[in-house]
UniProtKB/TrEMBL annotation:
Entry GO CC: ATP-binding cassette (ABC) transporter complex
Gene that this polypeptide is encoded by: potA
Domain of life: Bacteria
Protein name: Spermidine/putrescine import ATP-binding protein PotA
Family: Belongs to the ABC transporter superfamily. Spermidine/putrescine importer (TC 3.A.1.11.1) family.
Length: 351
């Protein structure tokens, strides 16, 4: 049995002249929690709809366990979808909403009853069977939508920004809840979001997208610590991105100073992008730093201070538990492992 449950091969999707997806190639392994991440309009929901069968590709293949399903209708695919608006039936109670798919299949009533109770227990809503949909909170409605999708035992669950309508505290709680459900059931989740924190919190693998193209695929740690281009670095977390020159392997110059780094394989004197995360810059005395700068602003963020320090013509964002006041001259230390070097982005030729 193949490890890849879903695979997209050279998939393009055009809506008239608009190229929504261009040469999408990726696979999803069995039992993975995979997140499609990117800004609005990048093509992530279109990708999900192609997998679900609600759209068909202009070209390319969508494989399910090595079989091309690009032309199969949704009801013939072993996937279910949870939409952002949940699409619950307001005239039915909780029990009937969850049981709907099984009733359509004319399943035995006692078996339906058993499975509905199992689903309510799974989503921590045991005893809610007779509640009306309108009496539920947004988080409870979302759990009912998930239970209704899971009761049909899909091999893959597609989730289209299902946390978008929830407030911040509830959304954070549901992130943990979704991961718990996925791990307990051991099925594949493909999740769409524009929220990088959601992606980092829940995912086994993140697929970053921009303008219908893949930008990077990797674990949350890979995506955050080793971004492949400036877009990924800027979109995933916060970063300072400056122009640099790679003099030789392990030696880069930026902000008027040469730094040792851990990157290699660039051309001599190659122009590069240098990415530095705000938590990776250490603030010291002005006589101790590799760089010297002036504090421009300070914001208290609860667990740390966010400072902007100007060094030469560059502004560095810094997260630190120690605060230096506005106007103070400070030194900055950046260790080799905390300097990330990327090739300059080249605009790809139009298809």
């Amino acid at each position: 049995m193949t490890l890849n449950i879903i695979e997209l091969k050279n998939v393009c999707k055009y809506f008239g002249e608009h190229k929504a997806l261009i040469d999408m190639n990726f696979y999803v392994r069995r039992n993975e929690f995979v997140t499609l991440l990117g800004p609005s309009g990048c093509g992530k929901t279109t990708t999900l709809r192609l997998i679900g069968g609600f759209e068909h590709p202009t070209s390319g293949e969508i494989l399910f366990e090595d079989t091309n399903i690009a032309d199969l209708p949704p009801y013939k695919r072993k996937v279910n979808t949870v939409f952002q608006k949940y699409a619950l039936f307001p005239h039915m109670d909780v029990y009937d909403n969850i049981a709907f798919g099984l009733k359509v299949k004319k399943m035995n009533k006692s078996l339906i009853d058993k499975k509905v109770k199992e689903m309510l227990s799974l989503v921590n809503l045991k005893g809610f069977e007779k509640r009306s949909i309108d009496s539920l909170s947004g988080g409870q409605q979302q759990r009912i939508a998930i239970a209704r999708a899971l009761i049909n035992e899909p091999d893959v669950l597609l989730l289209d920004e299902p946390l978008g309508a929830l407030d911040l505290k509830l959304r954070k709680g549901m992130q943990i809840e979704l991961k718990r459900i996925q791990q307990r059931l051991g099925i594949t989740f493909i999740f769409v979001t524009h929220d990088q924190e959601e992606a980092l919190t829940m995912s086994d693998k993140i697929i970053v997208m921009k303008d219908g193209r893949l930008q990077q695929i990797g674990t949350p740690e890979d995506i955050y610590n080793e971004p492949e281009n400036a877009f990924v670095a800027d979109f995933i977390g916060e970063s300072t991105i400056v122009d640099g020159i790679m003099h030789e392997d392990f030696l880069v110059e930026f902000a008027g100073c040469k730094f040792r780094c851990v990157d290699k394989g660039f051309g001599k004197k190659e122009n590069v992008d240098v990415v530095i995360r705000p938590e990776d810059i250490k603030v010291v005395g002005s006589d101790e730093g590799m760089l010297v700068g002036m504090v421009q602003s300070v914001i208290f963020k609860g667990v740390h201070y966010e400072m902007i320090v100007k060094s030469g013509n560059h502004l560095f964002k810094i997260h630190s538990t120690k605060m230096a006041p506005v106007g103070k001259q400070v030194g900055l230390i950046i260790e080799p492992n905390d300097i990330h070097i990327m090739k300059k982005e080249r605009v790809k030729d139009e298809e």
